[in-house]
């Protein structure tokens, strides 16, 4: 093969079934039928969705997980079309539906893996090797499941609303390990790979252990919460939006305080951890061509202003709408909150439901109870969200890590001294580990909504029922140990802290007769043009500019860079209340006609090669809001000045 460089159980019905043999290996069972490809390949569900009804809460579903054994995890993941039910919606999507474990451990036991959204969680430790064969069993690109001529929207992105949108290869894919500090070259985290329908690729990822740091010490890969997803330029949004995502958990009980204190199956003296993979669906609730439910097209994803009638944008957790989490009073739990959405930021609060609004039989909120008191759309003017009052009423919780990097001490939330919402809003692609400890009662974990060129409505994410005998065996820790890979910049004279270069990168959106253009430094992505050349072991200060333009105004852009995390030092010229390492961060707007700015420090250690930085509103990335980064040992050439792009 040649490659170019370039729900809860029972609700997801895959067309591939797998079973465990006597050795514990998963085997493919051929259950493909003549109906595998839907008539005319429209991607529309066969379920009648004329009158969808809300679905009652279910207990939180935990995705299947696979773990390394003796330093190795060897698995195969298969991608197919599959029918998925989330809440009241049933539709076709692309998903990781096949799993085979060649070496390692699985949570499935003798259970058949039928393919769910999200995909299986991958658990590794520093020093492990992950071998992952990715098998693309999607139909050919000419039969992509989102129809070209039936889009209801005509948004600014997606070339006029056609189903194929920014990419003409919606069923061609690859795989990115978001947030991992690993080799970006083949056969590792190479996002320029092109894996077409009917093809496969054997990835190999080595998770660093005892690697050299500039001050002469050794470091492990940070224990924390990461994820995997497709990164096929031009088709990333349509694939991630469809649920092609899964968690990567790096564990290090030897060095990480949180891993010592919490586990999925707690031992003596440990608290429980729960994985919340927050996904974002944008779907056609009633397609204009045949009345069936399907994923939105690029035109609908790129729609400016309120979404068209019949298009819904909503969050789910582990493939469920508003699942139930259970705790005991005073119990401390660790929630790994992983935002795999393709577009909308998350602004989280925990709101207690008044006792008179709780059903005494179920301990759930009574039907019709609304915790918000406001809506996203306003009939008499621009959309308004009065979030501050509810945020102030949130039950206290504690953030302990962002993007896989543990803090030195828990951060009490909601933040009382934030200089910007950038500090507490979770961008698409971002992750937050939080510790929660509540009194008896019923709480709703909510997303408070967000305003930008599209207004994202507030939504209940999950219901937390706190009942039973109090559990006081564990308290919120007061001190934590940050990972050695990301030491502070408190003393700039220390080895590895002196700044060797500064640069500016400008994100902008312009509008003309041809539509919207998503640009970095005035240009769209070109695979043959290195935009940012960096010398290995450099320590750099970057200022990311969110450009206000006369034609398009201002909008948010989550900045993400592969391989190396960064420490935010300034938000619109102000020092953040909390020093936080990130790999994905919202670039602020100014709130006026001026530019917004984000400044950070980063060390470019250990890995040479090419990778990318981009906007993690993924249709923006697909439309060209991405740059090629190259880290090399030798001195870098002068940056290119022309707009030519060799394809």
UniProtKB/TrEMBL annotation:
Residues 149-169 are annotated as: Disordered. Keywords: Metal-binding, Oxidoreductase. Residues 170-254, 502-633 form the Plastocyanin-like domain. The keyword Oxidoreductase applies. CDD domains: CuRO_1_Tth-MCO_like, CuRO_3_Tth-MCO_like. Residues 154-166 have a biased composition (Gly residues). This is Multicopper oxidase domain-containing protein. The keyword Metal-binding applies. Gene3D superfamilies: Cupredoxins - blue copper proteins (2.60.40.420).
